[in-house]
Amino acid sequence: MLENIGYNVYTWVMVNNKTFIQQINDMFRSMGELPEWVRQRVAIQDQIRLIREALGMTQDQLAKRIRAKQSSVAQMEKGSDFQISTLEKIAKALNCELLIHLVPKQGIVQLLEEKSTEKATKLVSASSGNTALEMQLPEKKYIDLQVTEMKEEILKKHRKTLWEK
Hints:
Layout (H helix, E strand, L loop, with lengths): L13 E2 L2 E2 H8 L8 H4 L4 H11 L4 H7 L4 H9 L5 H10 L14 H26 L6 H18 L8
Antiparallel strand pairs: 1-2
């Protein structure tokens, strides 16, 4: 777990030889790194119905356990919206744990690398375009160096700009 969660997210802080971003990346595994059974996307209403049926419990019995009407359970199993408190009651009634997680589609470090490279390339290209108008187009290795430096600057000091249009 993060020891220094109170640190400003926009600063790179070293804790146990890992930056804050590396710690977050380690904490939140991407979808590709999760076991297959976790990656399976079974709708919550289907999970409720399947577990309830596997336990041999009727909708009426579940309804009584969560202090609701049988028709409410039927609506839930058809896909109505749930409040988290209702899901917690259902999980308890079915002897389950309710886990709600945000799971990144890709690693956070990888996403930041891609977004910062894209942004740095656009910024440097705009700058290079201006010098090209002046007939002084820089060499590719110089442009690549500028992109790398700009990317590092964005990652260290300006990550929030990655999400602006």
